[in-house]
Amino acid sequence: MLAVYATGFDRDNPLAGLEVGERPEPEPPPGWTTINVKAAALNHHDLWSLRGVGLSEDRLPMILGCDAAGIDEDGNEVVIHAVITDDSWRDDETLDPRRSLLSERHPGALAERVAVPRRNVVPKPPEISFEHAACLPTAWLTAYRMLFTRGRVTPGMTVLVQGAAGGVATALTVLGSAAGARVWVTSRSESKRTECLKLGAEQAFESGARLPERVDAVMETVGKATWAHSVRSLKPGGTLVVSGATSGDAPPAELTRVFFLQLSVIGSTMGTRDELERLIRFCLERDIRPAIHATMPLADARDGFQAMLDGDIVGKIVFTT
Ligand SMILES: NC(=O)c1ccc[n+]([C@@H]2O[C@H](COP(=O)([O-])OP(=O)(O)OC[C@H]3O[C@@H](n4cnc5c(N)ncnc54)[C@H](OP(=O)(O)O)[C@@H]3O)[C@@H](O)[C@H]2O)c1
């Protein structure tokens, strides 16, 4: 089958280890099932994998991809949940110390077919296209949990989203504004800021700009480049939710502000199957859909990876089979 896979790691030139070509069909173990992929979405996670973050040499070659929507063995339209837990785990999947994401230990979703545990298959409503559904399991689920589970954002709050054009960030903007929050965003480029206003942001600022007032919550996926601005943008008692560090780790922690203003700094990772089902319902009820930057055939996946590497996108890149 056609698949997009990693054959090696390169921190500076991640696409050096990227291959698009034939891989063996999935061999699902007991309790797993094979999904015929109709659409699969690209995430920054796939670039991290090609840099050797979260993936080890002994697992190569590895099919990349966390996200897919497709058809199950009984002909049902489904979305896959990308968090794979130990068989014995019964709690919140994101808290299983042995959890992995598809493509870390098990072959991923950027392929014509992918095997997943049966419990990781979620019904896809017909109103949501395969392309839109494929964006939900990673970026959109992460945004949902950041806002509502971890950040406890409620209507009327002001929420700042840093690095607004990314997959998680556009989801934060659309979901946050649909839930009645006032969403402010920062982005490095004017054209991206304009696009983010169309997605529901109330105001858009240059990265690092002084805001008209301090905010109730900040959603961080950028890391080093925006961390200090995030901490300084919060009201006393405000909440900073962090799920990524695209520009790097280890910024100054701004500890004095954290304790003096009694800020909460909260980590967030992916989400549960239940949250994915609630996210799907929320998308249906509010009639919102993921922002898709480009849709292209799986065979042309390298172009999508290059666009993400160049940082030249607003929203998601989706591959179709
Ligand atoms: N913990 C989890 O479960 C989880 C889940 C999903 C993603 N993540 C992480 O979250 C991050 C975002 O993922 P994604 O898939 O949304 O990536 P993406 O679509 O490639 O978006 C990256 C965004 O980061 C911003 N950015 C990058 N470098 C920047 C810099 N130097 N200064 C300012 N902004 C910068 C950009 O914003 P502008 O161009 O608008 O400025 C860009 O839109 C990644 O690090 C990913 O690994 C974590």
Tags for this model:
globular, six-stranded parallel beta sheet, binds NADP nicotinamide-adenine-dinucleotide phosphate, seven-stranded mixed beta sheet, single chain, alpha/beta, 9 helices, 18 strands, 27% strand, 321 residues
Account of the protein in words:
The protein is α/β, with parallel strands linked by helices and 321 residues long. The chain contains nine helices and 18 strands. The protein has helices at 44-50, 130-133, 136-150, 167-178, 190-198, 227-232, 255-260, 273-286, 301-310, and strands at residues 2-6, 18-22, 32-41, 62-63, 67-71, 77-80, 83-84, 100-101, 113-117, 121-123, 158-161, 182-187, 203-206, 215-220, 234-242, 264-267, 292-297, 316-320. The strands form four sheets. Strands 3, 5, 6, 9, 10, 17 and 18 form a seven-stranded mixed beta sheet that branches. A six-stranded parallel beta sheet has the order 13-12-11-14-15-16. The chain has a three-stranded antiparallel beta sheet with strand order 2-1-4, with no helix packed on it. Helix 3 (136-150) packs across helix 4 (167-178) and helix 3 packs across helix 8. The longest helix has 15 residues, at 136-150. The radius of gyration is 19 Å and the shape is globular. The protein starts with a strand and ends with a strand. The model has no long low-confidence stretch (mean pLDDT 97). Bound molecules: NADP nicotinamide-adenine-dinucleotide phosphate. NADP nicotinamide-adenine-dinucleotide phosphate binds next to helix 1, helix 3 and helix 4.
